[in-house]
Design a protein that fits this description.
The protein is mainly β. It has one helix and 14 strands, in the order ββββββββββββββα. The strands form four sheets. Strands 4-5-6-7 form a four-stranded antiparallel sheet, with no helix packed on it. Strands 11-12-13-14 form a four-stranded antiparallel sheet, with no helix packed on it.
C-alpha cells in the first residue's frame, strides 16, 4: 500500500466518460477531460464569482433570486442559479453622439471597455472594421488634412484639439465661433 495514494474518487467526463484531470489555466485550477483535444469538457474547481448579497428581485429567465456578485471584471448582478442560468444585468449605455466611423463610413463609433478596464471608442462593425480611438472623439475637421474627427486635450490649462488621424495628429485651437457655443 502506498502512503501517497489518493483517497478521492476519480471523476469521469459526462461527455465521453474519460477520466478528468486537474489542470492549471489563467483562471486557476480546473478539471479537464483526459481525452483533450477530442473532448473539450471543463469544470472549474474554484468559484469565480463571490456572492456579496442576496437580492429580492427575481430573474426574468428562470424565476430564481438575483445576487450581487464580485467577478473578474468588478461587481455585477447575476442569477443565483448560475451556471444553469446565465442571466446578468447590464448597465444601460449613456446616450452617445452618433459619430460615423471614418474608416468604414457606414457604422457608428461606440464606447467600449478593454481587457484592462480602460474605456476606448471603436466601430460598431467590429471585427470587420477595427477602427479605435483611446479618447472620446469630437466631430471637428482638421484644418491641415480635413480628417472629420478630433480629440480634445488639455495642455497648460488650455483646451487644444488634436487630429484623430494617426498619420497627421495636427494640434489646433478651437475656432472663435465654436468657443461661444
Amino acid at each position: 500500500m502506498s502512503l501517497f495514494k489518493s483517497t478521492k474518487q476519480t471523476e469521469y467526463c459526462p461527455q465521453c466518460h474519460s477520466a478528468l484531470q486537474i489542470k492549471r489555466g489563467k483562471q486557476g485550477l480546473f478539471l479537464g477531460c483526459s481525452a483533450y483535444p477530442e473532448c473539450d469538457y471543463l469544470k472549474p474547481l474554484q468559484q469565480h464569482n463571490h456572492v456579496i448579497k442576496e437580492l429580492t428581485e427575481i430573474c426574468p429567465e428562470c424565476g430564481a433570486l438575483l445576487q450581487l456578485k464580485q467577478g473578474n471584471f468588478g461587481i455585477f448582478i447575476g442569477c443565483s442559479q448560475y451556471p444553469e442560468c446565465h442571466f446578468t444585468v447590464h448597465d444601460e449605455p449613456e446616450t452617445q453622439d452618433n459619430i460615423v466611423c471614418p474608416e468604414c463610413k457606414t457604422h457608428q463609433l461606440v464606447e467600449r471597455v478593454g481587457r484592462s478596464g480602460k474605456h476606448f471608442y471603436g466601430c460598431s462593425n467590429y471585427p470587420h472594421c477595427k477602427f479605435t480611438l483611446a479618447s472620446k472623439p469630437i466631430e471637428m475637421a482638421c484644418p491641415k488634412c480635413h480628417y472629420p474627427l478630433a480629440i480634445q486635450k488639455k495642455i497648460r490649462g488650455k483646451f487644444i484639439w488634436q487630429c484623430a488621424n494617426r498619420t497627421c495628429q495636427h494640434l489646433h485651437e478651437q475656432e472663435s465661433n465654436q468657443e461661444k457655443a
